[in-house]
Amino acid sequence: MAQLNWDDLRSILALVQSRSLSQAGQRLGLSYTTVARRVQRAEDALGYPLFERHPDGYVPLPKAHEIARAAERMEQEELGLMRRLSGQQPELSGPLTFTAPQLLIQTHLAPLLAEFTGRYPDVDLSVKAGYDVLDLSRREADLALRISHEPQSALVGRRLCDQRSAFFATPDIVEAAAKSPERPVDWLLFAHQPNVPEVAQAVHPEIKIRARLDDMGALIAAAEAGMGVLRMPLFLGLASSHLTRLPHLPATPYAPIWLLNHRDLQGNAKLMALKDILIPWFRQNLHLFQGGEPKSES
């Protein structure tokens, strides 16, 4: 009777889901040649093909789908077991993966991560800086800090703070715009934004969209170079020494910041230790995200 090992089953599942050797390899952290070898090994053991090979990818046959469904159930059991075991670990050592937006780490969180690694040198901290929504159920990260209106309901979360956004530009642009709002004003937009917010158009009827960029870091650099006014979260605008807020335009609501983890990891000592640094800092520094005066030390 044919025997299929777990590595081969996982490779079949990944290939069914992606239909590409390279993408299946990325999902598994393997080379595409290793995935191909494992699939071939499973087919040799079974005595029949599981995929049709085409120049543009692998097309799964019915038996591959059947195997993939079983492998997916097995994978969920494995992931759940590993999460539960990790959630019971009392040791302040070993791996911990944290994910947060890159610019939030760059402007404010790096000193907190330095404090954490200084306190707990035996923790092997990995930081995934980006805006991708990583799958915490698959342990792509253990703890996630996200800017979102609707975090995943399956996760345990704490709403760290609400946010507001405002309009920023170089001091000369700010001065000219405040002094003569009827004159043309250059503006910068994120690539997906159709137009300038109405609160700005109401004050500045002659707005010229100078450029659209698809990256917030690039937008900030363009604003600092004097290309125009940029709307962004307060924590970003206030962190720039080259930009000034337009005082005559109101701040507007922005997506809140959440701290999230899978419920199975709620008792993990390393995760709780990092939370114990992040949560008080946000409580003490709400002004960076909402405006107003810093909170006095109690």
UniProtKB/TrEMBL annotation:
Superkingdom assignment: Bacteria
Domain HTH lysR-type: 4-61
Record carries keyword Transcription: yes
Annotated InterPro entries: LysR-type_TF_proteobact-type, LysR_HTH_N, LysR_subst-bd, WH-like_DNA-bd_sf, WH_DNA-bd_sf
GO MF, one example: sequence-specific DNA binding
Swiss-Prot/TrEMBL keywords: DNA-binding, Transcription, Transcription regulation
Pfam families, per the entry: HTH_1 (PF00126), LysR_substrate (PF03466)
Family: Belongs to the LysR transcriptional regulatory family.
PANTHER family: HTH-TYPE TRANSCRIPTIONAL REGULATOR, TRANSCRIPTIONAL REGULATORY PROTEIN
Official protein name in the record: LysR family transcriptional regulator
